[in-house]
Specification:
Helix content is about 75%, strand content about 0%. The chain is an all-alpha fold. Helix 2 crosses helix 5.
Amino acid sequence: MKSDDLLTRILNDDSKNPPLLDRHRLAIIALRDSIKHALNAGASQKRVWTQLQKENKILCSYSTFSRHVKLLILCENKQETHTKEESKSVKKQTKNSDEQQQVTPKEKKEDAITNFVFKQIHLTKDDL
């Protein structure tokens, strides 16, 4: 038998009955929009998981659900906000670089040292 035959059989079997891990991930991906909407509206992950369990839409444990939500939904939201913030910071940097004068690294170090003032504070037990 060729290894291609084995791969073909595995792929055919997976298309009929996906592995359990993939079933959970696929179910959460299918419900991604409704889960994201519920979380953004203020529902907790635990409450969303409980409701989906009652409706038999997902069969996974809460820890599995939480992990997939974190990877598939929450990280997606963070990436969207990071890209927006990065584009804003790039625009600000280009705007500021045009307006500012060129300062050498040596001048920056000297300014930082002259502007630093150390104030030592002594706390007693009553202050804590």
